[in-house]
């Protein structure tokens, strides 16, 4: 029954809308794009919901949200930012857009946000899923579709860059 | 364990991804190696800095409303598809209301009050919930936007039969957003809009047909919590996606 399907979907998937929206905000770095991507993802998820039998509904849904964000970015916003959406080599490029969002210049959370926004998407999503959403390496590997070893290395590289950018790494040992 | 091995494992160690044995080996090395211990400290610092400074977003009400509205449309179709918001707000609206009714009946575990009230209250509830969802579409929330009750209350004069109470509740965490006129049950009704964090609360009121007071009736429809009460000759309906506990608190504060 279609109505039962809606009810089950509301119970299992919709509670994760905040996590979905958070991921989309960090991946697309734009409020309206994030809303559109999460709406697309919700409908896409609902369409495929009949085929969802087992596993964690949150990881399943976040994987769809992530794909929608990447699709969205490809089709709509190619030249939006100077940071390549996916480029591990783009270590030193700062994102000029990140500073657009600064309300109180130099506040702690703005500094951290700007540093995260400047990360390449692979590292950024790993950091957000780990630090904000609190997913395990296994769950992140399910969402992103890469082996756990890759997840581990992305989180590690993401933290290293952020640590350096935020000055926590200034007293380097050795 | 060498320093190299330790530095490789220290991230998974911080994230609780290592087995008990592996964790013990990392800890042992950290106790004996100040350099690796410093690296561990920096990692913990960075991680906690991220967790405390980075924003976790709440999906906005308007997004939830858009999703719920399109889901119920999809539930009626064989091949669900995305419908632009504007088209849905006008053309597809009756279908959305019909679908809301279906969802409301199916989720009858949550609908205590409605069954006792019979059909009229159910119909009214559909109408107020539909008005609530419509109000969340961009640009539909208020006709008069003000956080001052002295602007909002007089605005209703001449627009509805009875100008509603507009208590000021900012200090209690429920700032006034404004007011608008909705069309419910065949008449213009006053709607006063409050906010709790990111959640919109719509308070609908109009002169009651029945004189008897009604203790607050709680229900849930289409993902929204609804409270219906009748007092001082007024029908009052509150609708929000705020959790029921806080919505009940709001009802007690606003209508003591």
Structure description:
The complex is a heterodimer of chains A (174) and B (256). By secondary structure, chain A is mainly alpha-helical. Helices cover 62% and strands 0% of the residues of chain A. Chain A contains eight helices and no strands. Chain A has helices at 2-12, 17-28, 31-47, 57-76, 108-117, 121-132, 137-144, 148-165. The relative contact order of chain A is 0.12. Mean pLDDT of chain A is 81; it is low at 78-84, 86-105 and 168-174. By secondary structure, chain B is of the alpha+beta class. Chain B has helices at residues 3-14, 20-32, 34-53, 61-76, 85-90, 93-106, 113-117, 119-136, 149-155, 244-254; strands at 144-145, 176-184, 187-196, 199-207, 214-221, 224-231, 234-240. In chain B, strand 6 and strand 7 form a beta hairpin. In chain B, helix 1 (3-14) runs parallel beside helix 3 and helix 4 packs across helix 6 (93-106). The model of chain B is unreliable at 77-94 and 104-119 (pLDDT under 50). At the A-B interface, helix 1, helix 2, helix 3, helix 5 and helix 6 of A face helix 3, helix 4 and helix 6 of B.
Helix content percent band of chain B = 40-55%
Q: Strand order across the biggest sheet of chain B?
A: 1-2-3-4-7-6-5
Beta-strand percent range of chain A: under 5%
Tell how many strands the DSSP assignment of chain A holds. 0
Radius of gyration of chain A, in angstroms, nearest whole number: 17 Å
Total number of helices of chain A: 8
Biggest interface pair, counts: A-B, 49 and 44 residues
Overall structural class of chain A, as computed from helix and strand content, comes to mainly alpha
Radius of gyration of chain B equals: 26 Å
Strand tally of chain B is: 7
